[in-house]
Amino acid sequence: MADDASDRATGGPDDLGAFLHRRLRANLAQPRRTKRSAVRLALTAAIREAVLGPGDRLPPETELAGMLDVSLGTVQAALRQLQQVGVITRRRGDGSKVAVKAADDSPIWHFRFARRRDGGGVRLINQTVLRIDITADRGAWTEFLGPRPAYVRIRRRYDEPDCRPIGAEMFLDPALAPGLSQLTPADLEMINIRVHLFEQFGIETTGAEHRVQTATADAETAARFGIAPGEAVFEIHAEAFSADHRPTYFQRIYVPSADYVLLFRNLIAR
User: Fold this and answer.
1) Element (H, E) at 208
2) Which of 61, 183, 229, 234 stands 20 to 30 A from 254 (CA)?
């Protein structure tokens, strides 16, 4: 990466520090917001708003901690969460940098989506958690997770520039993740939910089976995610499971086929 990129972050620490501190205060003013989440969201905002650009080096962790008046452990936890979703890269001795390209998809996925116009991947920096709630609705998840009085549902949307939005819904058994439905959308913003489920609830997902079909977005789905009614989409059903093949979560994803192509990985047994 050219030196200009790194200098943009390190050459103006006062500007970056003022931006992060302002966002941190705003985040902490929200009910039940932890310092770790506030730092993560402040850094996310700096990247989304181009205060930090691809390839830019973040200030050292100790400097960030002093800049934001939080503990080193809080900064490290926030950076680790951003690393887990591929927004930044971290290397011992080289510090943290804003990722130059979209991260590879989860190892439990055997394909990924790329933008038709340039082949670029979906950047998780453009993810928004819309809602976390409890639903008694029944659907394909019922058969996979088993009949339950209700399910935790997490709705997300991905907004790539000049592309139609991608919508996603995740369903879980509330008994596996007690308290998950009490989180706010900001608590899961820029979080790798699969990793979060393991770290917080001991739910380890080791594999998944996927069904991909073409469909058109109905009126309800369109309104939910901002997709045009009747839009042609790839509809993906993902059934995730643990090492002993117990269900962990079900995911339903809608990807506009006019803007994205489906790329499969070359899986070779070793």
Assistant:
1) strand 207-216
2) 183
The sign of the dihedral angle between the CA atoms of 155, 161, 162, 163 is negative
Residue 221 has pLDDT above 90, yes or no: yes
How far apart are alpha carbons 164 and 226 in whole angstroms?
Answer: 8
On whether the 111-264 domain is CATH 3.40.1410.10, my answer is yes
pLDDT at position 260 over 60: yes
Distance CA 240, CA 250 (A): 6
Helix 61-68 vs helix 13-28: crossing angle, to nearest 10: 60
What's the pLDDT at 165? 95
Length of the chain (residues)? 270
What architecture does CATH give domain 3-98? Orthogonal Bundle (1.10)
Tell me what pLDDT residue 5 has.
44
- Secondary structure class of 225 (helix, strand, coil): helix
Report the 10 Å Cβ neighbour count for 189: 17
Q: Which of 84, 81, 105, 102 is nearest to 251 (CA)?
A: 105
- The sign of the torsion formed by the CA atoms of 67, 68, 69, 74 equals negative
CA distance 220 to 115: 25
Residues 49-86 have pLDDT tens digits of 989 999 999 999 999 999 999 999 999 999 999 998 88
Instruction: Break the chain into its structural domains and give their ranges.
Output: 3-98, 111-264
pLDDT at 101: 73
State the Cα–Cα distance between residues 245 and 240, nearest whole angstrom: 9
The percentage of the chain sitting over the pLDDT mark of 70, rounded to a whole number, equals: 89
Task: Output Rg (C-alpha) for the chain, integer angstroms.
Answer: 19
Question: pTM of the predicted model, to two decimals?
Answer: 0.81
Name the pairing type of β-strands 166-172 and 111-115: unpaired
Query: Quick check: 153 pLDDT over 90?
Result: yes
